[in-house]
# Entry
Amino acid sequence: MQSAEREKYQPACVAQRLQVENLRNGRLKICAPDSAGSNAKTVTSSRKCCGLFERRESWKLTWRGRAVGFLVGAGLVTGFFLGIHPFLAVSDPPNGDVFVVEGWIHDYAVDEAVKLFQQGRWQQVFSTGGPSVNFGSTLAEYDSYAEIARDKLLTLGLKPEQIVTVRAPARERDRTYASAVALRKWFQDHSIKATSVTVVTIGPHARRTRLMYDKAFRGSVAVGVVSVVNREYDAARWWRFSEGVKEILSESFSYLYARFFFFPAD
# Structure
């Protein structure tokens, strides 16, 4: 009778309890009710080496799961390789009121800028850029990239009165932003109220250029960029060229920094 009552009022695992089995082997058998209070579940764990290691049940991918994961990963990698260059080397219609050439770009890019300038309605071109420690003896006569671009523009047929040189201060980093700020201050000093700007740059630097000019002008002007194709590698297969890999990786990380972590004070 007493045994029957115990079975009636103490059903196995209805109240949460622990049973220790094979203590010498460090094995624990845990019996606990499920969310409904019935259908007891048993979870077995194993501890060894004085409790430093523990074995537990875990979920693992099946071959179907691994196949789906592989296909998704392959799609993401393919999308990155095929889409990152067009994303970074963005080009906008050259409709800005002000025409700007970044002074550091290659000679062939300046040549493309001159052709675009002569086809448009602009009266002046602004060359921007600051000094660099990499000028060397051949460029020692120049004080900034803006002046280098000015000489290139003159060589390609523009008149001195068509070129405005805007020198940026020396900066070890964020030089594009410094050039944009220098241009904004030049506009303020000369009472020029521009509504839109077109900046000629090169390759994947274009998207970061547009972002930096937009930050520098604080959204007061519409910023467009024209990206001249970098001739040092095939843009469609940039991953096959060391220069392409270096530029894409550098500009990708630099754009992420500028987009999410760069908050200028000026």
Remarks:
- The longest strand covers residues 41-48.
- The chain is about 40% helix and 20% strand.
- The CA atoms of residues 43 and 141 lie 79 Å apart.
- The radius of gyration is 33 Å.
